[in-house]
Design goal:
Elements lengths: L8 E3 L2 E3 L6 E2 L7 E2 L3 H20 L2 H17 L1 H7 L3 H19 L5 H5 L1 E3 L5 E9 L2 E5 L5 H14 L3 E5 L6 H11 L8 E4 L3 H10 L5 E3 L5 H11 L5 E3 L8 H5 L2 E9 L3
Parallel strand pairs: 7-8, 7-10, 8-9, 10-11
Antiparallel strand pairs: 1-2, 3-4, 5-6, 6-12
Helix pairs in contact: 2-4, 3-4, 4-6, 8-9
């Protein structure tokens, strides 16, 4: 007898059903939880609670955890290739996802040196520019490619010390919800990454207006969705990130970071 898998949301390090009990069938076969605004509120609250701990970890430790996620994903390659439809294209997407996690794991302890600076000033002071994480980042996963598209947005945000609330692809949510199982077994503290599935038209406007989300990545949104998000985000001065890239780039890390200038007096 075949036992069908029950897919759940990933919030605060736990797999939970939608509080509303709603579900939808994007492929006509599998029930996928249809997250509500309450589910997203829980995810944002969990992310905010986890932020200080994750940002306060050493860069090397964050890199080790991202690398562990790559190991776990590679170890379940056959399952994900099948989930992505099988064949060379699915295998390529899986390999690109693993490569992305490894690449950004290597950047965690380098981004400060590459983007930070010692600024020349007239006076007996040292002046440093230091990159710092933005905080809670909302990410809208692209519909295609469902897995690597999500990983390419989540990994740079985590690399820089941010925490994430991700909205899975509405039409292809299973790769994202299964990827949550990788995160759950990769030493990520509870709440650092939260993944919610559901309808974008219902959840996206709410993400844009939530006061405890510091930035929202809309690179996967349509032009109409971008206009809606930008209008809503303008009311709460939320950063809207529209960088589109299919390649790895340190600029995707700094897109989720703030630059802080610090003054120190020169000691005798």
């Amino acid at each position: 007898m075949e036992v069908r898998k029950t897919y759940k949301l990933f919030v605060n390090g736990e797999f939970v059903r939608s509080e509303s009990g709603r579900a939808y069938r994007p492929d006509g076969l599998v029930n996928v939880p249809r997250g509500s605004r309450k589910d997203l509120r829980d995810a944002v609250r969990a992310a905010r609670t986890a932020f200080s701990g994750w940002a306060g970890r050493t860069a090397m430790n964050r890199g080790q955890i991202l690398y562990r996620a790559a190991e776990m994903l590679d170890g379940r390659a056959a399952q994900f290739v099948e989930l992505l439809g099988g064949g060379a294209r699915a295998r390529r997407e899986l390999d690109q996802s693993v490569e992305t996690l490894v690449w950004y794991a290597g950047w965690t302890d380098k981004i400060g040196q590459v983007t930070g600076n010692v600024n020349p000033v007239a006076g007996p002071y040292f002046n440093f520019t230091i990159p710092e994480p933005t905080g809670v980042v909302a990410i809208v996963a692209p519909e295609e490619p469902a897995l690597v598209g999500l990983v390419r947005r989540v990994a740079p945000a985590l690399c820089g010390g941010n925490v994430v609330v991700a909205l899975a692809a509405e039409s292809h949510p299973l790769p994202a919800l299964t990827f949550a199982e990788i995160l759950a077994t990769s030493d990520f503290p509870a709440g650092v990454v939260n993944i919610v599935s559901g309808q974008r038209k219902e959840l996206l406007p709410w993400l844009a207006t939530h006061m405890d989300i510091n930035a929202i990545d809309v690179a996967a949104c349509t032009s109409d969705e971008m206009k809606t998000v930008e209008a809503a985000a303008a009311d709460n001065v939320k950063r809207v990130i529209k960088t589109r890239s299919e390649e790895h780039s340190p600029h995707l890390i700094t897109a989720f970071m703030e630059m802080k200038t610090v003054w120190h007096p020169i000691g005798v």
